[in-house]
Design brief:
Layout: H1 14-23, E1 29-35, E2 41-47, H2 51-57, E3 59-62, E4 88-93, E5 99-100, E6 108-115, H3 127-140, E7 144-157, H4 186-191, H5 193-205, E8 210-215, E9 221-226, H6 232-252, E10 255-258, E11 271-279, H7 292-305, H8 309-312, E12 334-336, E13 343-345, E14 355-361, H9 366-383, H10 407-415, H11 426-445, H12 449-455
Parallel strand pairs: 1-6, 12-13
Antiparallel strand pairs: 1-2, 3-4, 4-6, 5-6, 7-9, 7-10, 7-11, 8-9, 11-14, 13-14
């Protein structure tokens, strides 16, 4: 069995495959998958008779799979792609991620895989390994996290073409399209009960700990919460796999699901909220009673927030979400029980005191988002960074001019970062920035409908 490069990584052995096949002997194929930088699931479908090779020797996959833009194109990031011959890395399966595909008509399994190979490039090419590396820093200071993600998404009627504009889903119950803002509306949950129930069932079958579902601030918008876990890698895996489960279930019901930050200008955006608390070796929550560790954690998150913004808001659309009075941050403020701030301290049992990080768009890469959050917390604790004054009023009344307004500004901040380069590494940040800048150039090289509408008659 391959020895993992990072201590936090747990690789699956052949016994896991044998045990799975005893439970699901009719399995025909195995999907070996990753969640790429845009959260798109990519992988290879292996006949089950050949699956043993994956669990003993790994599978060959090009390094550049983690350097694709949102369209799936490889733009030769820092000479990695066609310039270097697009070399393969060896990927191995992740322990306890071998699960069935309950939405598929045939018995197919899936397993997450990760680069565990440094023969050509560092395994830090894989964002999951970046998270494994950074989360070890908390172990070094004897602090242990509990983490949970919340994801918002929209449900659309299925489009006939990718160029067709999205329309909010039509209820199979009322036969009407969702309309109006009915946050927490029970009717909105009942209208799409069969879809949401299948999401719940499929998540259980895949060991994705989905809990509460709620309707959100826009028609056709929903949120699903995940239970907390003490394993940062499992938390990010759950978030990545939940997206696939939601999308596949939507397709099964004749819909499309999207985690894009702002599909409609006149409706609320979709966010990825991350809840995190820290515990000591005795299992005590060190965030309780306004502790210094909590203050320093908040201070560190504030200090690193704008450096990390290109990861929290990872594409050109993400920046449409940041508007005042939309329950979306417009600065790096913090406060107790206040949804207008970036870093909220939810109310509740004092033993569950936690930080709710509210900055990221729902389409962001969960591994990189969590990496930046843990990096900010670790930096704050190690350097005793003090936060600014807590806000209990409407923090949206004070937009921060220093907060990035677009992806170009955010990429420049990340490129010139002082702190994050010590955590994510300069090499990885260089790759990420180059990829996103090339993605942006390709975007602007396309002639938009608006250009024709405005300028064709000139």
């Amino acid at each position: 069995m391959k020895k993992p490069i990072y201590k936090k990584v747990r690789l699956a052995d052949k016994k896991e495959l044998d045990d799975y096949l005893k439970q699901y002997p009719e399995t025909k194929y195995l999907d070996a998958i990753i969640s790429d930088l845009s959260g798109i699931i990519r992988g290879k479908r292996i006949p089950i008779k050949d699956a043993e090779k994956l669990f003993t020797n790994g599978i060959q996959f090009c390094y550049s799979t983690f350097l694709l833009d949102a369209s799936g194109y490889c733009p030769d990031v820092k000479g990695r792609g066609f310039s270097d011959g697009d070399p393969d890395a060896t990927y191995f399966p992740i322990s306890k991620t071998l699960m069935p595909l309950p939405w598929h008509k045939d018995p197919i399994a899936q397993v997450l895989i990760s680069i565990q190979d440094d023969h050509r490039y560092s395994s830090l090419m894989d964002p999951r390994n970046i998270l494994a590396n950074i989360s070890e820093k908390l172990d070094e200071i004897k602090l242990f996290p509990k983490i949970a993600f919340e994801l918002e998404f929209y449900l659309f009627d299925k489009r006939k073409s990718i160029y067709e504009k999205p329309k909010v889903a039509t209820s199979p119950k009322s036969k009407r399209r969702s309309e109006g803002t009915q946050v927490y509306g029970m009717k909105e949950l009942d209208d799409y009960y069969d879809f949401l129930e299948d999401v719940n069932i499929f998540c259980k079958k895949q060991n994705i700990p989905a809990t509460t579902a709620s309707s959100e601030f826009a028609p056709g918008q929903y949120e699903i919460n995940l239970q907390h876990t003490s394993d940062p890698l499992k938390a990010a895996d759950d978030s990545a796999l939940l997206r696939r489960a939601v999308k596949e279930t939507a397709d099964l019901h004749g819909y499309e699901a999207s985690f894009l930050s702002k599909p409609f200008l006149d409706q609320s955006g979709s966010g990825m909220h991350v809840h995190i608390s820290l515990f000591d070796e005795d299992g005590k929550n060190v965030f309780t009673n306004g502790s210094e560790i909590l203050e320093h954690s908040i201070g560190g998150l504030q200090k690193t927030m704008y450096e990390a913004f290109a990861i929290f808001a990872s594409n050109i659309n993400s920046y449409r979400r940041f508007l005042p009075n939309q329950f979306v941050p417009v600065n790096n403020t913090w406060g107790p029980n206040n949804r207008s701030v970036a870093l909220r301290i939810p109310t509740g049992n004092v033993t569950s005191t936690r930080i709710e990080h509210r900055m990221s768009g729902a389409e962001a890469n969960s591994y990189l988002v969590l990496s930046c959050i843990i990096a900010g917390i670790h930096f704050g604790i190690k350097n005793k960074v003090k936060p600014n004054k807590a806000r209990t009023d409407n923090a949206c009344e004070n937009p921060d001019e220093n907060m990035p307004k677009n992806i170009s500004q955010a990429l420049n901040l990340l490129d010139n970062s002082k702190i994050l380069k010590e955590y994510l590494t300069k090499e990885y940040i260089d790759l990420y920035v180059d990829l996103k800048k090339k993605e942006l150039k390709i975007f602007y090289d396309e002639i938009s409908d608006l250009e024709y509408k405005w300028y064709l008659n000139l």
